[in-house]
Amino acid sequence: MALRIEIGQYYAADSPVHALDARAKLCCVLAALVAIFCVSNAAQLAVAAAFTVAALAAARVPGGLVLASVRPLVVFLAVLSLFNLVFVQTGEPLAAIGPLTITTGGAWAALLYTARFALALVLGSLILLTTTLTQLSDALDSLFSPLSRLGLPGHEIAMVFSLMLRFVPTLADEASAIVDAQALRGGGLDEGSPAQRVRSIVPVVVALLASGLRHADGVARALDARCYEGGAGRTHYHDQHLTHRDAIAATLTTTFILTLTLLG
Fold this sequence. Notes:
Layout: H1 22-37, H2 42-59, H3 63-70, H4 74-87, E1 93-97, E2 100-103, H5 104-130, H6 133-149, H7 154-184, H8 194-225, H9 244-263
Antiparallel strand pairs: 1-2
């Protein structure tokens, strides 16, 4: 295929991370992501990188699969790094390329912000790589259940998130098929001038949007045909229980956050 996206693919393995309760896993990863986005110096960045590598090692997920899951966002990271390198003009000048001047502040900003986003993407990908969509849906339903007691649609919000995650692989496969169809019609994304390549993206986006709306309509009709009513005293096939593993994960995450706070 001309396009392959690995986002949303579960990797089965016997690891401590896979064995964690999905609710504890979600809370720990979200707390760690917030902490990573607050990193501001080299020591904190090194600790965040070590924590991410340790989490990957504990999950026993192949490095190539992790890189494949974040590959679609590599271009975004490259653009982010370039913008910081060029437009941040603090510190001492390092080099001048025509009208552009690269400074120490710009180089540090390019490294810091790109590294933070990369670590966050890798750590966030562990959720989808080590948690099935059913476990994730049940966890979201449980975490949003307090909203239902306040009169808010907690179950419906959780269902929307779970459906969104379930359709990521489906839409990725359809995007690949659409790109291949465009290439067969002579409108490949890797052919022609830069302006032509940009214009060739438009039909792909329109077709993908139409496909997404068709899927959404199909799901809505299926739920309506089954007289689905969100949160109507529904139970789960697998009960969720917090164990000592989840307490250890919470302790390690708390230690990581406290370490970053002390280094800051």
